[in-house]
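Hi R.,

Here's the chain you asked about this morning:
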Amino acid sequence: MRKIFILACILLSTFFAKAQQVIISDSAQISLITCSPGEEAYEKFGHTAIRIKDPKNNIDITFNYGIFSFESSDFYLKFIKGETDYQLGVYETTNFLPEYQSRNSMVWEQSLNLNPTERRRLINLLLENYAPENRVYRYNFVFDNCATRPRDKVLESLSGYIKFLPNNNSKSFRQWIGVYVGTDTWLKFGIDVIFGMEADRIASQSESMFLPEVLMNEFEAAQVEMTTGTVKKLVAEKRTLVSKTNVATASNSSQILKPTTFSILLLIIGALLTVWDAKRRRPSKWVDTTLLTISGIAGLIVFYLMAFSSHPLVKMNFNILWLNPLNIVLGGLIWIKSVKLRRILFFYEVFNIALLIGALVAFAISAQVFNSASFPLIVLLLMRASSWSGYTKRKLFKKHRDI
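And here is the predicted structure, written out as tokens:
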């Protein structure tokens, strides 16, 4: 569907080049469009756009800051690094709404209470932003996205000062995201793993408007104090453009698929294997290799984001304590039968145990909010590391005890 939108932008470029020369009548209406979340990961937070409707001049177009293409070169790598470029697209509103109808999302329209000067100023800002040299921007999930850009353009067009009502519904960035992706879902688990301490900072009222529905609610209650001293509501009217239909969905309540339940199950299986290993006095190397390799790969991702990504919320991440990138190397080396190498690996494993204990301490003192599914996994890794180091210690120092 995104590719269709991009194609629509290209096909309508000539039309909009002419539209920029058309005088918009004073009866034109400008609205904030808010779309409720969809099922796909990139749809989970909803969407915002700006609509300009001028029946007198037969104009009904939507400005959309959410245009991107999965087929652009190195899209996913750039997204991880925080180097994704989005662009402003403009097309007929009749071409905008069907996507949200097809994914069964609500679409609301808030008519903005703007005077002719403010309307003209906002239209000029949008048209200027749509110029080829300006329409592409560096996307940031929290601080510069499809909701913050329309908000900033609207506020810039006002002939006065915006007054948002005091909001006691304060949340951290992590908590706001949890509202939309759930508290015990795999998407939330992945987000919690890659987000660092900064994600636990309480988002200001302005910062929380990176979420389209939050922006909609803030606009609904906002007032504008004009330079003339008068006060007006920012939103003149709110109406529903697309309604959500009741569709039966498959049940996803099976707890075995939840991250927390899954990690607890892994801990139980790991504990039973550890007891079995202790009885036969030999570690299950394939278990340790699997755990070390998976945690090492996850650690590489966390480390890469901390070191190279421009996303502000992934820095200083305590998950690196239990997702040690070096584990991926250890997972292969434990199979090599070399006394010298085993001695080195033993001391590394002692260091790794210290890191895992550090992760538990960070979890306990809330140095950073960890996902609840992380705790059983940390305990599992600590259990296996302690078992493996104990076995190795007995092998390495057996001769000394015999003497």
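One quick note: The domain at 2-167+205-242 is CATH 3.90.1720 (endopeptidase fold (from Nostoc punctiforme)).

Cheers,
M.
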